[in-house]
Amino acid sequence: MITKKKLDQEIQNDHFPNHIAIMMDGNGRWAKQRGLPRTAGHYAGMKTMRKIIRICCKMNLKYLTLYAFSSENWKRPKDEVDYILSLPEQFFDEATLQEFDENNIRVQFLGDIRKFSTGLTDMMQSTVERTKNNDGMILNFAMNYGGRADIMHAMEQIVASGIHPDEITEELFESYLYTEGQPSPELIIRTSGEIRLSNFLLWQSATSELWFTPTYWPDFNQKLLNSAIQEYIERKTRE
C-alpha cells in the first residue's frame, strides 16, 4: 500500500507524469454483477470519474484525458446510448463548474462532437468557454472520439490547408490532432481487465506506458491510481 508520505514523495519525483489518460471501462459489467441495469453502472462510473478528477487535481497533474464516449459506442442499444449522453448534463452542473473554476481546471473536448444533439454540443461549448481562462489542470473528455478518426481528421485538415508533403513533420502533424498543443500521455490506464487500446489516442500513445487493472471503473479508486503512478515511476527510473 502506498502511504500519503510515499505518494507526496512520488509527486515530487522528476518522473511524475504530466499527462495521464484513462480508459474508464467496465461500467456495464459492474452493474451486471450486482443485478442492476447497465445504466446504474454508468451512473456509478460518473461518480467515480468525479472523485478521480478531484484526486488528480490535488496531485497537481497537468493534463488528464478521460475516454468518455468512443466513436464505437454508437453501436450500443439506443436506450443505453441515450442514457450515457444524458450524463454530461448531470455532471456539468453549476456546482461542478464552480468547483472547476475554484480549482483552476480547464475543460476541453476531444473528438467530433457534431453528431451530438444541439443541446449537448451547446453545453460542451459553454463549458469550454466558461473554463477557458483557467490555467491549472487541463481536463480532456474524449467524446465521439476514435484514434483513427483523429488521424484522418488531421490529414484532411492538412490537405485542405494546402501544405506541401515535404513540409509535413511530426510536430506539424500533431498540431492538427484534437490534442493540439498538449503533450502525449506518459501513462495510459485501462480498467476492467481488457488489455488493448481500443482506438484510443493511437498517435499520441506511441511511447506511453500502459497500465491495466481487472477492476471495473466504478470501483477504481485512489489506491489503484497511486499504484499505477508508482509503477510508472519505477519503470522510468529503471531506464
Characterise this structure:
By secondary structure, this protein is an alpha/beta fold. 45% of the residues lie in helices and 14% in strands. The protein is built from 10 helices and 6 strands. The chain has a 6-stranded parallel β-sheet with strand order 3-4-2-1-5-6, with helices on both faces. α7 links the parallel β3 and β4 (138-145). The longest helix is centred in the N-terminal third of the chain and has 21 residues, at 38-58. The radius of gyration is 18 Å and the shape is globular. The relative contact order is 0.19. The model has no long low-confidence stretch (mean pLDDT 95).
Please give a quick description of this structure.
This protein has helices at residues 4-11, 27-33, 38-58, 78-84, 87-91, 94-102, 118-131, 147-160, 170-174, 222-238, and strands at residues 19-23, 63-70, 106-110, 138-145, 187-190, 209-212.
- Write down the overall mean pLDDT: 95
Helix content: 40-55%
Cross-sheet strand order for the largest sheet: 3-4-2-1-5-6
In percent, how much strand structure appears in the residues? Answer: 5-15%
Radius of gyration: 18 Å
User: What is the H/E order?
Assistant: HEHHEHHHEHEHHEEH
**In total, how many beta strands?**
6
> What is the terminal separation in angstroms?
24 Å
Low-confidence stretches: none
Secondary-structure-based class equals alpha/beta
Supply database-style keywords.
alpha/beta; 6-stranded parallel beta sheet; 6 strands; globular
Layout of helices and strands, plus pairs?
Elements lengths: L3 H8 L7 E5 L3 H7 L4 H21 L4 E8 L7 H7 L2 H5 L2 H9 L3 E5 L7 H14 L6 E8 L1 H14 L9 H5 L12 E4 L18 E4 L9 H17 L1
Helix pairs in contact: 2-3
